[in-house]
Amino acid sequence: MKFRAKIIDVGCLNHFTRVVNTVSKLSKACVLRLTCDHLFFVLSGKVASGGVSMWCELAQVNFFDEFQLEGVSADANEIFLELAPENLSRALKTAQNARSVKIKLTKKNCPCLTLAAELPSLSGVSRVVTHDIPVDVIPRRLWHDFREPQMPDYDVSIYLPPLKTMKSVVDRMKNLSNYLVMEANLNGEMNLKIETDLVSVTTHFKELGNPPWGEDGSQSTSASHRDSEFMAQTRLDIRKLQQFLTGQQVNPSRAMCNIVHNRILHLIFLHEDVSLQYFIPAVV
To answer: What GO CC terms are in its UniProt record (predicted)?
Structure first.
């Protein structure tokens, strides 16, 4: 089992750092799945028990100048590692001006992702700063717990408003309540609402648009039978939504969400070479 990769382009390094920073804001621990073509950061929370889950997918060719992988076996050419993304984020922050960054799987006192950054110096002699990030190797029998989540049979899918605007609204609402109701319909309308014994506040968004899903442009089974005026809603822990909006640094070209009425909010951020999915369960 071997893994080594190298980043030379500073733009790719900065982009990869932003993605890792986003992941580190969303989870204290996650699984890094490595394949020959992709990297995945996976948080497999149990939605039924109130946990969030995350799936972040990166095409390795858009980030790495060199990428070599030998998985656990010929028929399973993958590696699953559990790590603290904050440790990887801190290591990358020291490498922002690096000439190159090498990442490889090593065996020290424990399995590690070793990050070696070649930094320039005034003397002309390069310096190499090395970080050993402890990881746990996930055995193959547990891999099925970290596969891509299926898109839920949603009631409404809608594009999100500008994320800075949405974050500003959620930040203010958090001062008034611990819970937020997010609702939307197939006419491109979305509302963020809080209701307490003392105050009721609603922010309205219109003309957001509803994304077509599937090759034929169809909506899901649930959505296709819905009245376009029907407001599907989900009541959320406002802190989980705020954490997601505060932590994201992916700068998506498209941001949307799917709502399963009274069950799940499924957020989707798409960049040309990164996709990020985040699932927040409803609270009663």
So the answer is: checkpoint clamp complex; cytosol; nucleolus; site of double-strand break
Q: What is the DSSP string of 5-25?
A: EEE--HHHHHHHHHHHHHHHH
Q: CB–CB of 228/186 below 8 Å?
A: yes
What single DSSP character describes residue 205? E
**What pLDDT, on the 0 to 100 scale, is given for residue 120?**
81
Residue (of 248, 277, 268) closest to 42 by Cα position: 277
C-alpha distances (whole Å) from 48 to each of 51, 194, 265 are 7, 23, 13
pTM surpassing 0.85?
yes
Q: From CA 58, how far away is CA 47, in angstroms rounded?
A: 24
What domains lie within the chain, and their CATH numbers? 2-146 (3.70.10.10), 156-281 (3.70.10.10)
pLDDT average, residue stretch 127-143: 92
What angle in degrees, to the nearest 10, is found between the helix axes of 10-26 and 85-93? Answer: 150
Q: Are 166 and 265 spatial neighbours (Cβ–Cβ below 8 Å)?
A: no
Q: Please answer whether residues 262 and 216 qualify as being in contact, where contact means their C-beta atoms are separated by less than 8 angstroms.
A: no
Cβ partners under 8 Å of residue 68, min gap 6: 2, 3, 4, 5
Six token digits for residue 232? 């599907």
Q: Is it the case that residue 136 has pLDDT exceeding 60?
A: yes
Q: How far apart are CA 237 and CA 215, in angstroms?
A: 34
pLDDT in tens, 80-114: 999 999 999 999 988 888 899 999 999 988 999 99
Q: Report the distance separating Cα 167 and Cα 188, nearest Å.
A: 19
